[in-house]
Specification:
The structure holds two protein chains of two kinds. Chain A is of the alpha/beta class. In chain A, 16% of the residues lie in helices and 39% in strands. Chain B has a single domain, classed as Ferritin, core subunit, four-helix bundle (Ferritin, Up-down Bundle). In chain B, α2 runs antiparallel to α3 and α3 runs antiparallel to α6. Classes of the chains: A alpha/beta, B mainly alpha. The interface between A and B is medium-sized, with 14 and 16 residues. The structure holds copper (II) ion (CU).
């Protein structure tokens, strides 16, 4: 059963890589998201509660990571900003100043 | 000939006519001038808004317009310098400038909530118009790949501004 599940997870991960590698996992407790030319890269991340997301803004424009009705992180031009993931952070987020910029966080066990 | 969906009231016909009689395709020096002028116009509108509005959402929007358009125009200036291109004034730039002067005069007469609404509505319309011009005329006409790439970044930025303006407009009800 466990082996089956693992195999299925592996297949899912493989599919994600084939689909363009949009899913990123944390290294050393931090998952990095780069903002370049008004896009979150990767747009979709998987994190565990307690891990840190770090956004690095390579644009000369101020951006945010904003969850509707929830938290907001300001990411000034050329700077980085972080958010510590909580269990209920499986969310879609966007930039308040440029709502066409969108990202997704998935909290995994 | 590409036409623009023109949302600026009085100068609309003038602008459409100008684009219709302009040479089929603007050159890179003309494109640079048009894009730069479009940015300057929105910075001027933002400054007017910041001098008039008391609404925090409108203030935040106008501050964002001023900073973003100044930043992208700085990128444009650095690029034309690097490429040795001199931006060239042209009928489209002049029509844009004329339309925006008229709009600013109109907005200048308004105050309070009436100003906020007119400013934000015009920002929605203006960004929509500029994005239409970028998509259908300026980006396809641009010859230099770096200029084209900067225009594409500009389009994403201004599409974001259009959505931001729509959000602010929805909150002004
Ligand atoms: Cu943004």
């Amino acid at each position: 059963m466990t082996a089956l599940l693992n195999r299925r997870q592996l297949l899912a991960a493989g599919a994600a890589v084939l689909a363009g590698g949009t899913l990123a996992r944390a290294h050393n407790g931090t998952v990095h998201v780069t903002i370049d030319k008004l896009a979150f890269q990767p747009a979709e991340i998987e994190v565990k509660a307690g891990e840190t997301i770090e956004w690095t803004n390579r644009d000369p424009f101020a951006h945010t990571a904003t969850v509707k009705g929830g938290w907001e992180v300001s990411i000034p031009p050329g700077k980085s900003a972080t958010h510590v993931v909580t269990a209920d952070d499986s969310v879609d987020y966007y930039c308040r100043f440029h709502p066409n910029m969108t990202g997704r966080i998935k909290v995994i066990a | 000939m590409k036409t623009l969906i023109c949302a600026l009231s009085a100068a609309c016909l003038a602008l459409a006519a100008t684009l219709a009689v302009a040479a089929d395709k603007p050159t890179d020096p003309q494109i640079a001038h048009i894009a730069y002028s479009a940015g300057v116009i929105d910075v001027e509108a933002a400054k007017l808004a910041l001098s008039k509005t008391k609404n925090p959402d409108v203030t935040a929007f106008a501050q964002s317009m001023q900073k973003d358009h100044e930043a992208v125009n700085d990128m444009a200036l650095a690029l034309v310098k690097k490429l040795g291109v001199t931006p060239e004034d042209n009928p489209t730039s002049r029509a844009l400038a004329k339309a925006s002067e008229e709009k600013r005069a109109e907005l200048g007469k308004l105050d309070g909530a009436a100003f906020d609404k007119a400013y934000i509505d015009n920002e929605v319309a203006y960004h929509r118009e500029v994005n239409g011009a970028l998509e259908t005329l300026l980006i396809p006409s641009a010859q230099n790949p770096e200029l084209k790439s900067l225009l594409e970044t500009g389009l994403k930025l201004f599409q974001g501004h259009e959505q931001h303006a729509e959000h602010v407009a929805a909150g002004l009800k």
